[in-house]
Fold this protein.
Amino acid sequence: MSEAGAEAGPGPGARPEPEPSLATVGLIKAFGGVTALDSATVTFHHGKVNALIGPNGSGKTTFFNCVTGMIRADAGRITYRGRDITGKPPHRIARAGIGRSFQLCRVFPRMTVLDNLLAAVRPSGLAGQLAGAGKREETERARSWLARMGIEHLERAEARQLSWGQQKLLELAGVLMSEPELVLLDEPAGGVNPALIDRICELVRELNAEGRTFLIVEHNMDLVMSLSDHVVVFDRGRPIAQGPPSVIQSDERVLGAYLGV
Amino acid sequence: MPSASLVFQSVVLGVLLGGLYALLAAGLTLYFGVMRVVMIAHSAFLILAAYLAWYAHRETGVDPLLTLFVTVPLFFAAGVAMQRLLLTRLRPATLTMMSVLLTFSVALVIEGLLGYVFSGTQRRIRLDYSSAGFEFLGARIAAVKLIAFGMAALALLGLYALMKHSRFGQALRATIQHREAAQLLGIDTDRVAGYGFGLGLATAAVGGTALALDTTIYPSLHWHWIGPLMAIIVVGGLGSVPGAAIAAMTLGMLQSLLQLELSTTWAQTVFYVALFATLAFRPQGFFGGRLAQRF
Amino acid sequence: MPRDSEAPLPAGEASLPASEVSLRAGGTQLRAGETPFWAGRLPRLGILLAVVAVVLSFPSMAPSPYEITVGIAILNYAVLSTSWNFVGGFTGYISLGHGGFAGLGAYGTGLLVTKTELPPFAALFTAAVLVAAVAVPVGYAALRVRGASFVIVSIALVLILLLVFQSWSSFTGGSRGLVVPRPFPGMLRAEHHRTFYFLFAALLAAALLVWWIIDRSRFGMGLKAIREDEDKAQSLGTPTYTYKLVVFVVSAAFTSLAGGLYALWFGDLDPVFQFSILSGAYMVLMALLGGVRHLYGPVLGAVIVGYALEYSKVEFGDTPLHLVVAGLLLGVVVMFMPDGVIPAATALLDRFRKTGETSIREVTAAELRERRGQRNGTEEVRDSERSGSGSGTGTGSQT
Amino acid sequence: MRTTHRLQGGITVGTLALVLVASGCVSGGSNSEDSPDDPIVIGVSLPLTGDFSEPGKGVERGYKAWAKIVNDKGGLLGRKVELKILDDQSNADRVVSDYEQLIGKDEVDLVFGPFSTRLVVPSARVAEEYGMLFVEPAGAAPEVFDQGFKNLFYAAPAVANDHYNHLAEYILALPADKRPRTVAYAAMDDPFAQGTAYGLKEKLEKGGIKTVVNEVYPPNTTDFGGIAAKIADSKADMVVGGSQYQDGVNLIVALQQLNYQPKMAAFSTAPTEPEFAKAVGNKTEGILAPTGYTQKGDYPSNKEFVEKYTKQFGKAPEEDEANAYTTGQVVAAAVKAADCASQDPECQGKMVEWLRGHQVETVVGPLKWDDKGRPQSAHMIQQWVDGEIQIVLPEQQKEADLIYPKPEW
């Protein structure tokens, strides 16, 4: 059943076979008696905006945590653009070019907005480590990201003093500061007002156009359908369908999963 | 080589000691389970209970065991109060670290007050049956040690039955395993955590009375207990009550057996060696919990 | 979803009233664009020089060698708590076991001097290197898992070292103690104190300097990110485990230097006093009380705690109430000002300084609360989360 | 951030200023000149809290009794004596800092020693380096005398290792077939307690008596089950406990629980304490202990001491009190001989010089010292006989005959 769904293919249209970005094979993760990921095999497309949807508790966040190394899968393989990243610690995965946001937005609450971005700079070598943080070019880069998010005027405020929406933007800016090729966003529209949702969508499109791949977990179906090129639907820890939004929208299994049939 | 009878004697002593460790470690595990709190003051409360038993005995001559009827409810209430009034006020983000310091400060206050009220003199309950003992398969068992073990075993069994077979126990286990999930099931996890804390402190009351039966007590004695107990809960897997009990019995026995060949002091290091080995090779502990992974 | 008139667009958010920002900034942070008259490096440098001058001239002003020993004790506290603060302040990991590293440094120095006849100060640094080497496996075990295990290991470290140094008496002298020969034989006691006063001051300066370098470095930025949110830091590519281990080892080395210098000064080592949980707890108390996020926080804490302990000893005489005082002090700090007195005092000072603005800000705050009441559900959840998380706990400090 | 720095700076300057002012003020009042009306101030640091607080308070009572008795008789050199006692919390850092304060800041005229070997060595060093005479009531362990101190005198009959000398002589004088053949030793990890047990061990081993158990336990041990099991299993003829108080009681109870019945049992300190009999359930018969002091001691000053002490504190003095009192007597003798009491190096030097060559009459008998400060007398041996602790050795001082073998406990 699900295997069939997983092979639903790219759907109609004469697109070339997309290059794989993040891919998993047979990913399993159980918490005690509860199986959060049940042999999940899934592939996302490089250069696209991918979406991962599914009802609550279907394993989306666990999937995120597994592929970013925050928790270790019990079994299965994870690859990114062909490279095996299974079992790698989170910072290695981050350095491989995968950045992520968290479900309930996470910033460094007691650091300034600017420092939140500078903390994403990855120095190398002893001299690089001990050099003063906030070299001019880094600061300029950080400021340009903040400007792009529209929060550059807050750079000296502490992050916890920002509003929810501002924190969401700050988190996104921080992720982008680490220059990822693939950006994993966990519910970017969660708790955000519609105007800001539009702004975030716009940003995702722009950044995608600049060459970044996205993988978005989101409950807001309008957003998913309007934004993404490729959608994967999870239910009970495994993909039940995948394909372009138009196909997914009419898939009965997806409706079934959402309606709890 | 130690003789067979001495080895057997040591095994018996190890079991008797392990029982007390197991009860106390179960208490520590409860706090950790419900709140992710390492309760440094646990052993200070243990000594406090021992002092109360000693004091009641000295003043009124009642059997120290009878003080349990007062200390157990008292400590339960104190546990609930401590959780409610102190620990819930800490920021969740830094709860684990700050709660250590807070309970540490509680331990200091208890130690200081005990020293102030009862002075630093070592105390010991003098009972008619203090030096009584009997033969058991060639080993000699002191009556007071057996009573202490019996109390610990009964309390542990009671705790086990409560956790396995009561609705509160189910709520408690659910809270320990996954707090958010328990909340979704409609469990008032704050209240459960409070009661869990109370239960943990009640084990200190029982343990303290058991301790007072057979050993000397003095205000700073709690430092002597907290180290081994913390080692036990890590080895057992943080958050796992059966794990803590098994680890307690194992390590208590090991300590007792090692004393045959090594000095008393070296034998005590077994707890810390086990602790470091566990963290280096198997951080989730040996008998339990997944909880340790993230803590 | 009810709409919020105030934040429809980032542009709208950008036009947030500055007063709101400054209100939320609550003190330590300046409003963007404000340049106070005293800003700039010169006054700060002046204050620093004044402090240094006072510290350095203290021995010559002291009426008797006793005052110098008090100065040494406080400097020693200050070095220890600053060393502790490498771990506690940067990463937020609370170690109760640094007393163990101080003891190791002391015994390491003492044993190297007596057994290998190394020159005293060579022994001091050799011991620090050895302690750093010991700290690697300890850190490996302690830092692999988060939080609770770290504290447990840190306490266990002191307890196991106490057992080992007591038991292994053929090597360490056990309970008979270890006598460390004076590094300057023939020096009069008063002169000895004076010399060590300056040595401790130099060590403090070195510790502060290294802390300062790390604080402003990229490495420090990574460490602070760990303190704020370890998962998040990791997901941004910070090798958190390595970072924590490195700073743990640096901290252990400085603590060891303090312990070793103490051994050379004091001369008599006894495991019971060297490997004491209480001394580790005092380091935590001092750093926390002063403020772990600040360079001078632990120093300030050392001065305050040194006084408080002395005061309670004089006041409560021959009772163990000094433990109660230390306990209560620690409890109060943890509950009500986990950021220490510096932010608490700054907030207070700020209130005085900005009395004119206060009323305006209060109005803004009231308005804000009103506005918040109308916001959507998520916002409310977040606000209650904030107030529930102890951000408002008393004393005017913005915790 | 800048506010913060500024404030920190301010606070730091402020506190430092406070340090200076405070220390300056306090030390301003004292004087270094002797005038006949000024009292002789004697500085002491004692463990009034912490691990050694129990004996520490005993020593304090002894010192206070001495001061009262001296002052009631008109003082020393016509001047009143005044004690300045600080609490060192049983902590070596503190004890040193206390003596620094007493000598440097308070400028006391004389010092008395603290309690416990662990604290005596560091504090003796302070006194030594300031050239002060250091008579101490409680540093009996051999290490104390190996530090090369020239100003130190131990105010008790014998060092720890010699406490059992009379008993060792008695045992070795027994006919070979009656002697205990095997001995089990258990000593607290403390220089004094170990010293007593190992002093006897050395002598008995030299006499060919076998050691079958040799255990050392940390001072904080509360569970003696394991050690007792080892001793009981060895079936040693004799058990020797290098104990202080409570550990001795615990060990005896643990041995009784295991029904171990040795022919001879000797424990230091514990059996001489007043609560001992009750603590071990009155099963005391035959237990031996060395002691440096007896209230019945037939020395002139002792009668006065016991009488006046009992009046002052409502009970008779024990060994700690007596040793403290002895310290006072020794220093007083030196002061009288040197005819001065001040920090002046010449005065202190005269007192040290005099004590080197003279004998002092004290409540524990006449004392004199070797060049390292070791007293040259011996301890008596007491035994619980007929429910009472009585002196059994040496022959000339005995109140009862030594019972051997010991009846069952």
